[in-house]
Amino acid sequence: VTTLLICLPLAAALILWVLPLNPVSAGSLALLAALAEIGVWVQLVARYDFARGGLQFSDRHTWFKDLNVSYHVGVYGFSVWLIGLTVVVMAAAIAYAFWAGRERARAYMGLMLFLTGAIVGVFSAQDLLLFYAFFEAMLIPLYVLVGVWGGPGRMGATLKFVLSTMAGSLLMLASIVVYGLSQHTFDLVQLGPSSSQWVFLGFVAAFAIKAPLFPFHGWLPDAYRESSPEVAAVLSGVVSKAAAYGFLRIAVAKFPQPAHDFRVPILALSAIGLIYGSLLAFRAPDLRGVIAYSSLAQMGLITMGVFAVNDLGLDGSVLQMVNHGLVSATLFLLAGMVERRALTGELGRLGGMARGRPALATMLLTTGVIAIAVPLSSAFAGEFLILAGVFQRGWGWSVAGAVAIVLAAMYVLRVVSAVLHREVGPAVSDSALDLRPAELGVTVPLIACLLALSVWPAGITQHSFRGDHGAADVAAQFR
Amino acid sequence: MVWGAWICLLSPLAAALLITLGGRRLSRRAAGYLATSACFVAFAGAVAAFVGLLGRDASQRQVVSTAWTWITGGSYQSGLQVLIDPLSVFMMLIVSGVGALIVWYSIGYMDGDAEERRYFAYMSLFVFSMLLLVQGGNLLLLLAGWGMVGLSSYLLIGFWQERPSAIAAAKKAFVMNAIGDATMALALFLLIQQGNSLEFGILGGQFSSTVANLVALGLLGGAVAKSAQIPLHTWLPDAMEGPTPVSALIHAATMVTAGVYLIVRTHAIFEQAPKIADLAAGLGALTLLVAGLIALVQVDIKRVIAYSTMSQIGYMFLGAGIGSYPNAMFHLMTHAFFKALLFMAAGIVIHALVNEQDIRKMGGLRQLAPRTYWGFLVGSLALVGIFPFAGFFSKDSILAAAMDHGTYGYVLWAAGLIGTFLTGLYTFRLLFIVFWGEPSAFVREHFHPLGRDTVAVALAVPVGVLTVLSIVGGWIQFSPWWHPVETWLQTVAEPVVSPASWQEWLSIALSLLLGLSGIAVAWLVYGVRRVAVPRLAFAQRTLEHKFYFDEAYDALFYAPAVFLAKFLRRGVEQPLIADSGRDLGDDTRDLGGIVARAQTGLLRTYALAIASSVAVLAIVFVAVK
Q1: How many beta carbons lie within 10 A of that of residue A6, not counting itself?
Q2: CA of A309: which chain B residue's CA is closest?
Q3: CB of A314 within 8 A of CB of A386?
Q4: Rounded Cα–Cα distance for residues B502 and B56 (Å)
Q5: What ipTM goes with this model?
Q6: What is the pLDDT of residue A96?
Q7: Mean pLDDT across A56-61
Q8: Among A2, A292, B187, B587, who pairs with A73 as Cys (CB 3.0-4.6 Å)?
Q9: What pLDDT was estimated at residue B585?
Q10: B242 contacts on A by Cβ (under 8 Å)
Q11: Closest residue of chain B to A315, computed from CA coordinates
């Protein structure tokens, strides 16, 4: 099943590129493939034995026998949820792109599907080289999607994005080679723990840039601003999670000692990013800027949860990865819908959009409220667990988190009222319509997922790691 | 009993969802009736739970019903559960009962507003959140309700969303409450670390004094923010930007008193942290004085009542802080009656005067709206605590209890007595200015009396019911003689102070005397105008600026946050981080140009190169295998 999850979108992408389809049928085919992918995933969830946990649905074929490199994929409890996040967000993004009518639909849709396959690959690869290949394969479609279909400043944005990410990737590649050769295997399940700080730092560098963590986020504002809304949704919603996954699956699980030694600096960077991102989001002049910096803040929070390395922190960060993925994807799509109507995302020129547009107002308000982590929302559950977990590593970290909660209230409410409330802004014309059925069709399922998670966050937290007390002993989880 | 509690909790939520999903298919009036009937159903559920508890032995009156496990983190877990015990049922009755009356009143008050449906959806959401707060079976759900009432309060204060002042007030309320939420969350983190659980029972465990103090302090932070006590009180007067029924329900009768409920519910930890409990009582005493003073100079009818709410919650904090839990809860109940009454009577005045709230333009309304006047009068007498109105029974017993709390208790007692004088003064200042004298020019021009339609009925009947409750609501307990409320709440929160009989009677006598003298002074100055209003420029200016709290917070917190954000943006983000990326890009491009002149420099070439090399690698892998 895991291989099917990876190959289905890749195959669909290939068909799109090869067959001369018209834009409508290309879009429909892509959407169909994305929905089929969700279907496969649902089946995966239904068949995964959460009580047993551990690696399931694994598939292994040796490649380089003497180096012990293999095609090895499989899923753990928590990767099930990350893959679920991926397929849902990608389907929404493809549906939105289809509706918005991107030029050269075949190429565009093919790239989106290719990206889906690559991300699912990252979340299920159990071989370091394979992981690296998928990790890099994510970059190719993104690179083209931002560079070709982006806004006016797309070239600068792409260059910055690609160069910073590649710098990180090279360090990771070096680490992978050293680590794999020293242990005579590249298989993630068989690799034993290492105490090498340099190898650890190589991995951390790659993930810190990808996430991004402060101060490696130079590429983030431009990339999120210049790309089309659905690509921004995917970048912040899903691609950033690949980094958080890497922190969890490799940096923490394989390097217990270095992760312990470097805990304070990494937590500090995360906490700084959390507050710094929140403050910048509070002053950002445009819609996407606010969401972009809030993403920076949230990735800081998630990283804090991972590096707390205890039950609460890990369960919380897995939950929060899914939450933030859904929230920020929805927010970016909504931002795109607002920009489509007003032709600008500048907060100063928006306003008063709630009047006469109840659907838009309801969607934006609901998502915003979940983004603030109002208690009883799934985001609250995630943040609460993360901060409760990191509290046990020092109360100061949680205080920083609590400050950020207040700041989050300030920036989200600022956006909500700048878009929806007050006088009607100069860029908002009376003829701007409420959300169309197709747009609702994209956002409602995402919000429904969030509400379902709010009703039962334990659905994820109980079903991510094996047993009750397992998550603290991280390495033991992956045998 | 258990099903009664669940119906009580869920029926307002169902109404909120139905109104939201129904959209325009539901008429505006239907939305109003749906919300109202949902609240009455909730009240019926609360009554069922109450009757169920009554039938049990006093020691058996605690039932927890868990729907499912809501959240887990390793071995820590919290369920989605409701707690049915005397305290929660007491609150359920108040919240759903007063809530139903106020939502009904809203049908009249909001009649003709373009977005009635949204209003009733928010109101139902609020009632659900408040019930979740009081019924939540563990601290996490209590915090959940706590945040949800904050959210619905934000939505309702900012209901008239095209008014910048309303939006600003709503944001202020939310952010100040978020500060309280954050300190509460920190307290809960500490509890999880200590006991790996958030059940209420854990609070009774043994903690070191540092831990107990910190947990109590964190909880107190939340209580102070929610209940608008000094120093987190400045949002409440601004919250009067919301529609008047909202002020009556959220900012008088229920949500703002949640802090008192919190202290009573978590009293076990406050008893282990006596210093923090004293701090709570002290903040209450300070607030009741400061708010009483500010109320003397306010000219907006709703703001006067808002300050009086702060002041009355100050009494409740005082009572809860010294450990007189049943009296604090009793005052919470009577206050819900008479304060809702005052707001709703004021709402009728505002409605009749086409949304005018400035009392300087009012006057002589006694002749034009006699029934409203009588309702307002009853509410005012109950507020000042005159025999036999509701406030008399509840306020005096708090003061008496303070006398049993050592020297510090006497200080609090004195503050409370001074507060009684102030209450008489500001309450009747308002009453005399608005209702006595000759009708002002503004009133004569704009006043339009209520008709006899559904609007008038919806406005008048709840006010009538609350008028009756403000008279008889206090009779269920008279501390020198009988204590049904105390007995009812005993199993949950046993009071730690028990004043002697002479202390009870002394407090009653003094507070009656002071309350009456406050009324008398108001009568001299504003009623018959025999004495001119004294002119004290400095004092007046300080009071009109509300002791400069807003200005201080702006300078201390808001301005630095904005400055810091701007500095980070201009000084760190743009030069160091955004440009470093650009320099990196430029340098690499230059380097690339030198090293590889053959390259076209086109991005898609790079893409092609990467893609093809991956493909080649893949082929090599397959071939080697």
Answers
A1: 24
A2: B74
A3: no
A4: 35
A5: 0.90
A6: 92
A7: 88
A8: A2
A9: 56
A10: none
A11: B73
Distances (CA, A) of B24 to B114, B123, B440: 12, 18, 42
Would the pLDDT of A473 be above 50? Answer: yes
DSSP code per residue over B114-134: TTHHHHHHHHHHHHHHHHHHH
Residues in chain B: 625
Alpha carbon B550 to chain centroid distance? 19
Query: How many other CB atoms are found less than 10 A from the CB of residue A97?
Result: 26
DSSP state of B256: G
SS3 of B63, please?
A: strand
Is pLDDT of A327 > 90? yes
B68 in contact with A, Cβ within 8 Å:
yes
Give phi and psi for B141, each to the nearest 5: -70, -35
The identity of residue A120, as a single letter, is V
Instruction: State the Rg of chain A over Cα.
Output: 21
Both tokens of residue B144?
Answer: 């959940």
Length of chain A in terms of residues written: 479
CA distances from A348 to A351, A472, B37 (A): 8, 47, 42
Contact A395 B186 (CB under 8 A): yes
Q: What stretch of H or E contains A272?
A: helix A263-283
A62 strand-pairing partners: A70
- Average pLDDT for B522-534: 78
Q: Give the contacts of B420 (CB within 8 A, at least 6 positions apart).
A: B384, B385, B395, B399, B511, B514, B515, B518
Phi, psi for residue A65 in degrees, rounded to 5: -65, -45
- For chain B, what percent of residues have pLDDT higher than 70? 92
Q: Could you give the 3-state DSSP secondary structure of residue B604?
A: helix
pLDDT in tens, A78-90: 899 999 999 999 9
Residue B625 in contact with partner chain A when CB distance is under 8 A: yes
Q: Does residue A116 surpass a pLDDT of 90?
A: yes
Closest Cα in chain A to B74 = A311
Nearest to A135 by CA among A249, A54, A28, A55: A249
As a whole number of angstroms, the distance between CA B255 and CA B237 comes to 14
With residue B28 as reference, give the H or E element that holds it: helix B28-54
Residue B479 clears pLDDT 80, i.e. is over it? no
Mention every residue, 6+ apart, whose C-beta is less than 8 A from residue B255: B126, B130, B149, B153, B226, B249
Which of the four pLDDT bands, split at 50, 70 and 90, describes residue A468? very low
Beta bridge partners of A70: A62
Tokens standing for residue B201: 């029972």
Cβ pair A280:B162 closer than 8 A: no
Q: Is the peptide bond before B86 cis (omega within 30 degrees of 0)?
A: no
- Which pLDDT belongs to residue B590? 62
Closest-approach residue (CA) in chain B for A215: B577
Q: Which two tokens stand for residue A119?
A: 């991300």
Burial of A450 (0-12, 13-18, 19+ CB in 10 A): buried
Averaged pLDDT, B202-225: 87
pLDDT in tens, A349-385: 888 888 888 888 889 999 999 998 888 889 999 999 9
- What residue type is assigned to position A178 of the chain? V
Mean pLDDT (chain A) is 87
At B76, the amino acid letter reads Y
List pLDDT tens digits, range A386-409.
999 898 888 889 999 988 888 888
| CB pair distance less than 8 Å for A218 and B75 | no
The span from the CA of B97 to the CA of B94, in Å, is 5
Strand, helix or coil for residue A60: strand
Angle at alpha carbon of residue A28, lines to A22 and A34, rounded to 5°:
135
Interface contact flag, B178 A139, Cβ < 8 Å: no
User: pLDDT per residue over A218-233, tens digit each?
Assistant: 888 888 888 889 999 9
B562 CB near a chain A CB, below 8 Å? yes
Res. A315: pLDDT tops 60 = yes
Q: What gap in Å lies between CA A379 and CA B200, rounded to an integer?
A: 24
Question: How many of the other CB atoms lie within 10 Å of CB of A433?
Answer: 12
